[in-house]
Design goal:
The protein has 295 residues and is of the alpha+beta class. It is 31% helix and 9% strand.
Length: 295
């Protein structure tokens, strides 16, 4: 399912700072309409708990257009002396716990290595020369020319005797291994903390009246036929009932009748970009207003 397959009228739209910026009025292949203004589909990047969120760039564009709208509204107020046309939005917040995981040392296994010394005897066979001196008689002969140089001189004749000697050399060998197996086990741990929620009585009271609004909508739709037939669902029309219900609880309209507050509600709500005329929406908004005032 794609990102925009989940869109519904009345779905809340939030900025990257978790501030509610309004609800979805309608959408088409290119744009999503929020609060009577259109924003390209590329301005949004995710859903979370039935909420549509602006992307970073899309939210900057929204804030820029909202700032321009406020400047224009202040100019209109200066000229007409009327109250502001913007909705007063009160964000309802709650805290949620997000549990992350990180690597940490949970203990250790110590393996001690000791060095011990032992005497090792290695037999080896060595060869060496042995010398024996024998006097041998030979027939008399004249002394050769090369032998006369050392004749009749005293001295010692040194004859080297060779043999093998043992040389010890140490080499290091691997004679075994200690294998340490580490297995990963999973254990469930419950993280407990205290979170805060803001509850708004208007929303709670609205939910108690929601079924009455549904019956009102179904009754009106059943009475429309032919070209005036209404193909919407209650979920499509619900934002109108909620608008009237919320306005009836707005301090700006305290003590005023619907007819007195209607011009301001119309400017704030308008057709909400849905293509419906005010006359088509008025009865649903008024029903929300009247039911809120009767409670």
């Amino acid at each position: 399912m794609g990102l925009f397959d989940k869109l519904k009228r009345g779905m809340h739209v939030y900025g990257t700072d978790d501030r509610s910026v309004g609800t979805i009025d309608r959408w088409d292949n290119d744009n999503v309409y929020v609060g009577g203004k259109s924003y390209p589909r590329s301005s949004f990047d995710r859903f979370d708990n039935d909420r549509l969120y602006f992307s970073q760039e899309g939210y900057r564009q929204y804030q820029g257009s909202a700032q321009t709208g406020r400047t224009g509204a202040m100019g209109d107020m200066g000229r007409a002396g009327a109250m502001g046309e913007e909705d007063i939005r009160v964000p309802v917040m709650e805290e949620r716990i997000s549990v992350d995981k990180r690597q940490a040392e949970r203990g250790s296994v110590d393996i001690k290595k000791d060095v011990v010394t032992e005497q090792v005897n290695v037999p080896v066979e060595l060869r060496r020369e042995e010398v024996s001196v024998n006097r041998v008689d030979v027939p008399d002969r004249r002394v050769g020319a090369g032998e006369i140089g050392d004749a009749f001189e005293e001295g010692t004749i040194r004859v080297p005797i060779r043999g093998e000697e043992a040389v010890a050399r140490k080499e290091t060998f691997v004679t075994g291994e200690v294998v340490i197996d580490r297995d990963v086990v999973t254990e469930r741990e419950t993280i407990s903390d205290t979170i805060r929620k803001e509850r708004v009585d208007v929303d709670e009271n609205y939910e108690r009246n929601r079924e009455g609004f549904r019956q009102h909508f179904e009754g009106r739709r059943a009475g429309l036929t032919g070209s005036t037939a209404d193909t919407r669902t209650f979920e499509d029309a619900e934002t109108n009932y909620r608008t009237g219900y919320t306005a009836a609880n707005d301090k700006r309209f305290a003590g005023r009748k619907f007819e007195d507050a209607e011009p301001e509600i119309r400017r704030s709500h308008g057709s909400m970009g849905s293509g419906d005329s005010w006359e088509h929406l008025r009865e649903e908004i008024r029903e929300g207003w009247e039911r809120a005032r009767r409670r």
